[in-house]
Design brief:
- The strands form nine sheets. This protein has a seven-stranded mixed sheet, sandwiched between helices. A five-stranded mixed sheet has the order 7-17-16-15-8, with helices on both faces. A four-stranded mixed sheet has the order 20-28-29-32, with helices on both faces.
- The chain is built from 18 helices and 32 strands.
- The longest helix is centred in the last third of the chain and has 28 residues, at 505-532.
- The model has no long low-confidence stretch (mean pLDDT 97).
- It is 29% helix and 25% strand.
- The protein is globular.
Length: 737
């Protein structure tokens, strides 16, 4: 089953319109909720007045402030209340909660709430933390010896997640329904803030219309709907509007970086110095500081054997929506810095861009390889993956087709990436400031008829878990795929878990499932030994059968399952009834996905319009469970990466969001994208998890921005172009040149 391109089980209900989303929920006697939000980027709240409806303000709440999930040494964490109490720090921050019998009535009542504000000066640039990695002195010494230096100043543009389904939450009092990637994390946050036991709140997250990282973070509305439902003893329902989402969903990226690469005359990397200023927004979001600090900085060695690396990240506050995870989360930013430097080094030394990378790759013989910034790569054949990507893209013949269309400028770009997937080893994460562990849990419950229900602490919001997890267990137990049911997203069914983000579901959750399956087999051998009247050591298991070694005597998995619930047939003093096992898995290291992407595009000389005509990628994601699902994940990632490179940018002016609708915030359409040529390389499975799996969901988003901008710079013959490279920006670059 592992490696089979099975169709996704969950697609049937979506195609039939039977998905279950937050907006589909309704409860008898429910109240609809609308929030009054600040129109000011920074202001003091003098008073809040209302003459109608049910209105709550921050002064009505006896809650604890929201805390981030990852705190760095010396980091400032301004108090963030579910409803602003004395001041607001960004446009869209909730100030009052209005409840009424209908959505329309709540919206009307919200318009009658009068808030008296005293505008305050913007706080842009207020320091939050400083995070460093590497050896500053070693870098300074290596730079002094370097025959060549190349330097860049880069901006990694701020992005919105912009999922098709807006955020929402509904609470019946003891159950919170929320469109989140992380129901277990949300339960912990909400219960901490309300001072209630986790056993008193069930969190259910069913189908989610796009997560992309930002729906895995904690928001004020989740606590507020629970508080109101408990206070009023009535169900409370809230769903965000699209403009409301632009104003309140966590955003991402927003780095300003100065980077210098030292090389010798042959183009070998000697030293790298990176200084980044990361905008955290108004508050420290759940993992906002971790992404800008530990996660981003850990990948700045890339695939290259640079002997000395030093990274300094200064996080700062601004009057904008907090930043946090968005597909890639720190890794696209690191890849962009390294690949832009590699391209510039090649240009200045007169070396082909592919050749400068070849001269600096970490060879497979060096694995495991400890980088100068901390992480140890367990495996990878970077040169092999790179050469295959060039072959797939027909890179060597590009000059023959460069001038094929006289009306267009054609360019080709390269990007190589490495990703810390399988988030995360709890030991490493907590040492760097995580307030939570990152293990995963899987429970395998076998029914008397041999069917299996699996309960996992992960969450499925488009990754195809109902299919891939069933494939893993089908192969492990040798039972039909159709006899396995997957349950996720419900803290009432799965008591603990770490949920889904950071390309962790298969590498961590799948490993927990594999281990739990092993426990089922181990107990099954005890039962089979009793049924076959042999010693347990004589029982072998394969292909769904327990067999006496060296004979044709056997019992099937279904027969063992039936016997497990008939305890009169085996000795209770040595064997408990039932066939139900749980396993926890905490990875010893990250799983380091990697790959090489090549983008070929054309630019219209007259308009600056870009057409991506070819995109080739080879990704090492370890063992592939389902090739069709993996291909979809990789393609989706590339689409969002090209979106950052060519279309998307969140714009603030004086604290006011200028891109609060799809009229102002462009995302790529199907017509903007080519057919993708993608392959996976399974020759280097992860060495430290039982499946050999690495993450795949974020790979395309990591490499595509760097590959697309590399191709644009090649086409235009210029040294720099900010993302997003819109037709207007490109046209101006053409005119200047």
């Amino acid at each position: 089953m592992i490696g089979a391109a099975l169709r996704r089980v969950e697609d049937d209900r979506f195609l039939a319109g039977s998905g279950s989303f937050i907006a589909d929920l309704s409860f008898p006697g429910e109240l609809h909720c609308v929030f009054v939000r600040s129109p000011h980027a920074h202001a003091r709240i003098r008073s809040v007045r209302s003459t109608s409806a049910i209105v709550f303000t921050g002064r009505d709440l006896a809650t604890q402030p929201m805390r981030c999930g990852w705190v760095l040494p010396g980091m400032k964490e301004p108090p963030r209340w579910q409803l602003a109490r004395e001041t607001v720090r960004h446009v869209g921050e909730p100030v009052a909660m209005v409840l009424a019998e209908s959505r329309a009535a709540a919206e009307d009542a919200a318009e009658q709430v009068i808030v008296d504000y005293e505008p305050l000066p913007l706080i842009d640039g207020e320091p939050a933390f400083t995070w460093t990695r590497g050896d500053r002195q070693a870098v300074e010494q290596a730079m002094a010896r370097a025959g060549r230096k190349v330097a860049l100043e880069l901006v990694n543009n701020r992005l919105c997640g912009a999922a098709i389904e807006t955020r929402g939450a509904a609470c019946s009092g003891d159950t919170l329904y929320v469109g989140t990637q992380a129901p277990h994390h949300i339960r912990r946050y909400v219960c901490e803030e309300l001072g209630i036991a986790e056993a008193d709140l069930r969190v259910i997250s069913r189908d989610v219309g796009g997560g992309f990282g930002y729906k895995g973070k904690h928001y004020p509305e989740e606590t507020l709907v629970v508080w109101a439902a408990r206070r009023l003893r009535r169900p409370v329902n809230w769903i965000a509007g699209r403009s409301e989402s632009f104003l309140t969903d966590t955003q991402a990226r927003d780095h300003r970086t100065r980077a210098t690469l030292g090389l010798d005359e042959q183009g070998h990397f000697l030293a790298l110095h990176v200084a980044t200023r990361a905008d955290l927004g108004a508050y420290v979001s759940s993992f906002g500081a971790a992404i800008a600090g530990p996660i981003y900085s850990a990948l700045l060695a890339g695939l290259y054997r640079t002997p000395a690396v030093f990274v300094e990240v200064n996080g700062f506050f601004s009057n904008s929506v907090p930043t946090d995870a968005y597909r890639g989360a720190g890794r696209p930013e690191a890849c962009y810095v390294l690949e832009r430097l590699a391209d510039k080094a090649a240009r200045e030394l007169g070396i082909d861009r592919a050749e400068v990378r070849r001269r600096n790759f970490i060879p497979p013989s060096a694995m495991p390889y400890k980088t100068p910034v901390g992480p140890t790569y367990d495996c990878g054949d970077f040169p092999k993956v790179f050469e295959r990507a060039l072959e797939l893209a027909d890179y060597s013949n590009f000059q023959k087709r460069k001038h094929r269309n006289p009306d267009c400028l054609r360019g080709i770009g390269i990007a190589c990436y490495i990703e810390s997937s399988g988030v995360a080893p709890s030991r490493l994460a907590t040492a760097m400031g995580a307030r939570v562990g990152f293990y995963e849990v899987a429970q395998v419950r076998v029914a008397p008829d041999g069917s299996v229900t699996v309960y996992l602490g992960t969450h499925n919001h488009g990754q195809g878990h109902e299919t891939t997890f069933a494939q893993i267990l089908s192969q492990r137990l040798g039972i039909p795929f159709e006899r396995i049911r997957i349950v996720e997203g419900d803290t009432g069914a799965v008591a603990t878990g770490t949920d889904t983000f950071g390309s962790r579901s298969i590498a961590v959750g799948g490993s927990a499932l594999h281990v739990a399956g092993g426990k089922i087999i181990a107990k099954g051998k005890k039962i089979a030994a009793h049924l076959l009247e042999v010693a347990e050591a004589d029982v072998e298991f394969a292909a769904g059968e327990f067999r006496v070694a060296g004979t044709d005597r056997k019992v099937t998995f279904a027969e063992v399952a039936r016997a497990a619930y008939a305890p009169q047939r085996y000795p209770l003093e040595s064997l408990e009834p039932g066939l139900d096992e749980t396993a926890y898995y905490d990875p010893p290291n990250f799983a380091f996905s990697n790959g090489a992407h090549v983008c070929e595009l054309e630019v219209d000389r007259e308009t600056g319009e870009v057409r991506v005509i070819r995109y080739s990628a080879v990704d090492d994601i370890g063992t592939v469970i389902n090739p069709m699902i993996v291909e979809g994940q990789l393609h989706g990632g590339v689409a969002q990466g090209l979106g950052q490179a060519l279309f998307e940018r969140t714009v603030y002016e004086e604290g006011q969001l200028q891109s609060a609708s799809f009229m102002d915030y462009a995302i790529p359409r199907a017509s903007d994208l080519p057919a993708f040529d993608s392959e996976t390389d399974e020759s280097q499975p992860c060495t430290h998890n039982p499946l050999g799996a690495k993450g795949c969901g974020e790979a395309g988003t990591i490499a595509a921005p760097a590959a697309a901008i590399s191709a644009l710079l090649d086409a235009l013959g210029v040294d720099d172009l900010e993302m997003p490279a819109t037709p207007h920006a490109i046209w101006r670059a053409i005119m200047r040149k």
